[in-house]
Amino acid sequence: xxxxxxxxxxxxxxxxxxxxxxxxxxxxxxxxxxxxxxxxxxxxxxxxxxxxxxxxxxxxxxxxxxxxxxxxxxxxxxxxxxxxxxxxxxxxxxxxxxxxxxxxxxxxxxxxxxxxxxxxxxxxxxxxxxxxxxxxxxxxxxxxxxxxxxxxxxxxxxxxxxxxxxxxxxxxxxxxxxxxxxxxxxxxxxxxxxxxxxxxxxxxxxxxxxxxxxxxxxxxxxxxxxxxxxxxxxxxxxxxxx
Length: 242
Prior knowledge:
By secondary structure, the protein is α+β, with helices and mostly antiparallel strands. It has a single domain (2-20, 27-235), classed as outer membrane lipoprotein receptor (LolB), chain A (Clam), CATH 2.50.20. It is built from four helices and 13 strands. The protein has helices at 2-13, 34-45, 48-53, 116-125; strands spanning 56-62, 71-76, 80-83, 88-90, 95-97, 108-109, 134-142, 145-152, 159-165, 171-180, 183-197, 200-209, 216-226. The protein has a 13-stranded antiparallel beta sheet, covered by helices on one side. The longest helix has 12 residues, at 2-13. It starts with a helix and ends in a 16-residue tail after the last strand.
């Protein structure tokens, strides 16, 4: 039962199909600090004031190998999320399938060992270094461009490294490494097609691993809502569930 629950969650959040990738190389010194790089990114994205005022996001995205309809993801900063298509809530410390595994039964808690994935999924849609202490891992050259590597300290232990383009000061890609029940998963997501939404630059194109663990799929963001009036119940785990 618990194994099936884990598989359902990983399919919905896109981790079951990730390939193993080489880890990043040794960092090079650039003379910058993580705070300076994050400040430059905030300015490029739309300004620190807009970032500070951003409390919630609702993002719709199409994953071609999951159909041509938009899947939605809701975020309440710093680390809460809700996945409507699965009725899956994460309050930063616990997660629950509100409709159960067969989507028509009583709510079921997610094993605490599996919470590491939720931090990563939030970090894909909104840079985690705005909400958690971060370390600068140096500069590098990736795919012919100079990047700065920033790694936030996520609550449940996942490793996430953002590659910030030194020309645009926007994220070019993010790499992740996490362990769930003794099994390691590595993946990366490349961002593209930045568009202004309410004065904030947000990527509307992204890559992700295909179901065959080899092909690279190209997803697209279909809608972005900042500071949407999201239902508070979407971020509350029922207290009477064991």
